[in-house]
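Technical appendix A lists one of the benchmark inputs used to test multi-chain prediction within the project. The record comprises two sequence entries:
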Amino acid sequence: MILFGLVMSLKGPSYRLGSLMHMGPGFLPTALGVLLICLGIGIAASSLVTADGEEEDILPENREWLAWSCILASPLAFMLFGAYFGMAPGTFACVFVASMGDRDANLKNSLILSALVTVFGVALFSYILQIPMPVLTWRGL
Amino acid sequence: MIGTALTDLWYGFGVALEPHNIMWCFIGVLVGNMVGVLPGMGPLATISILLPLTFGIKPVGAILMLAGVMYGAQYGGAICSILLNLPCHPPHAVTCLDGFPMTKQGRGGAALGATVFASFVGASWGITEMIFLAPVLVRVAMEFGPAEICSLMLLGLLAGSTLARGSPVKGVAMTVLGLMLGIVGTDIETGAERFTFGMTHLDDGIELIALALGLFGIGEFMNSVNQVSTVNAKYANVTLKDMRPSREEMRRTIAPMFRGTLIGSLCSLIPGTGPTIASFVAYATEKKVSKTPEKFGTGMIEGVVCPEAATHSSIQGDFIPTMSLGIPGDAVMALLLGALMIQGIVPGPQLIKEHPDIFWGLVASFWIGNIMLVILNVPLIGVWVKLLTIPYKYLYPSAMFFCCIGVYAANNDMFQVGETAVIGFLGYVLLRLGFHPAPILLGFVLGPRFEENFRRAMLISRGDIGVFIERPISAVFIGLCVLLIGLQVYVRLRPKKPGDIVIPAAAAE
């Protein structure tokens, strides 16, 4: 169930930011902030009533730390490689990092997959859809 | 009135039958059918991924394609649940109950055939409903001032967040979160920067694509990575010949099909009750009217046909409020509205009048698309079954790439790729906490318009909040909101009967 503290820490900042705004543009944010706090308290209260000491973990049964971090790292890899080296390396890095997250991923399969997606993706986006992003570039480090 | 509707429809067919529009429609239903079959990819993620690709094409083609994905996925989802007992998409969860036993008895093909037929009937009814109801709604909606629009949106938001899956309080909380996310950026009236934390990248607000892909792309991948088991395609050998139901089965199909269609269309008229609820209600009803309720779950064709007809009829019906009032009923509809807005088209009652090509083209394309889907599904069933065997480990990295490039291509801005990753992470955390992210999108799309109309209403009434109750139409909407909240509280506080719990619990899967 929802942990009281977590809910409050999620909702708390929204309130302060809302009320600090001056009245004109800040009116609705403040109102929503207050509303959200009320709802947060409501959720927390109902969780306190029903949980009854039963501490449920927010993490699922099997924790895929590697997979999660790989998936989150994948867009970052795309940003990094895409910005410095262009679209093709960015795509390759993005797919490769993401595919390494799977439990029975191996290097060879991931490389093949990344290469395929890169070729296909560059063809589709760069040549057919004309996305203004250099395919290959060197912007230094 | 019927005459004008038919003329307009004729015009719509003219638009939808233009070669490039047919092509987009076909691509849409094809992709939709594909992702419907693939476990672990939903229509939401797909539409989000395809959204950036639609910038280059005309608004009509774009909306035709995205809508095609939406209803195409429902056909595909049925294949998945009947043959493999995998409820890939929530509306099809009940189809598994009787569909898979039929497959085990070797009647899976017949179940599929009947389903395709029932889906088509359900969808056709939904479309007809749209043709005649939407213009009427628009005529009423033309009278609305800011106060009415505001309270109508409030009703739409409340209904969308409380009647959908999971706990209503959490749903409302997510909607509010979505509204707040919609506030990020430069204020439309005063130009003040809000919630940008000094980042100039956020001045234009959070990009809809970044939000949608983060929540439904990355968030979903994190949820289902290494969780999707390899598919057991033992029973999945279906050929075209198997798909013809026997005469006895045909006879048993007709009545449930129409019952399902009716239930679906009723559900679509209540905002917020989407296809999932429609299919569950349909199954329950069918079980109740059946002479042999104890046989349900052992492969009754009625239990397959009725929910499927209801699903399709309600999906088409869901387009009615979205297109005529600009109030989306669920996250997919919100996304479609977002796609229209990206194309520079303001959703609302004026949409049908100002862009008749979009509205009537869409209506006509539903029919064309549904016929395409029947054609795609009946002879090509073997291909779809083959698709089921694509492992998820190849699927999601490729989809990740589409997410990244899609977000980047929207504005040629790397910052938004990072934004998507952050949103994806938060979306996953919320999902684990039992918050369903769909209402966020609803709030996000409606948020700016809600604020605009709220302020305008306040300006007109000189800051008198009573205007919402004094104007009769607005008062009715507010009354409905109060009724809705009251009902929810009542349902919560009432001692639960066993029957009540089953449906929400199964729907939350």
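The two ends of chain A are 46 Å apart (CA to CA). Residues 23-51 of chain A form the longest helix (29 residues). Comparable benchmark entries are summarised in Table A2.
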